[in-house]
Design a protein that fits this description.
144 residues, 6-stranded antiparallel sheet
């Protein structure tokens, strides 16, 4: 009986070896990875807008810049400004819309929720790349 299974397992392993690398490409983030390690001293007047819950600022860093959003007293979100759909276009940037609830890409017009960076409209099929945030004292650390 074991002899019969060796003819099944060998082709199955070969098939998996061929198919798995193709599946992995579907889940890869299209926005290039760059090292992010930023410390913002929120007591600085440079970041005064972040003293109010619901406000955001734009900072340099990441691949095309970062949007920092204050969600609550101790919770901050940091999003890459490069749209996953058209990240290769240098002039394309995601910006926060006037309603303060959504973000939009300037080129493909994909729209994202400011609360979590998920896409809800447009040709993009992936949410924005997010960075880790850690808030302690007056310091906000942003990293990947």
């Amino acid at each position: 009986m074991a002899e019969r299974y060796k003819y099944f397992f060998k082709p199955a392993i070969i098939l998996l070896a061929v198919l798995l690398p193709h599946c992995d490409k579907e889940f890869q983030d299209p926005v290039p990875n760059v090292h992010v390690s930023i410390n913002l001293d929120l007591s600085s007047t440079l970041y005064g807008d972040l003293s109010i819950i619901g406000n955001h600022i734009y900072i340099t860093g990441g691949y095309r810049g970062i949007i920092v959003y204050r969600m609550s007293q101790d919770d901050f979100r940091a999003y890459e400004r490069a749209c996953p759909y058209d990240h290769h276009k240098q002039h394309a940037r995601v910006v926060v819309e006037d309603n303060g609830l959504t973000m939009i890409d300037s080129t493909c017009l994909s729209r994202y929720l400011l609360l979590d960076g998920s896409v809800f409209e447009g040709p993009a099929t992936r949410g924005l790349k997010t960075y880790r945030t850690h808030y302690t004292g007056n310091n906000l650390y942003i990293s990947n």
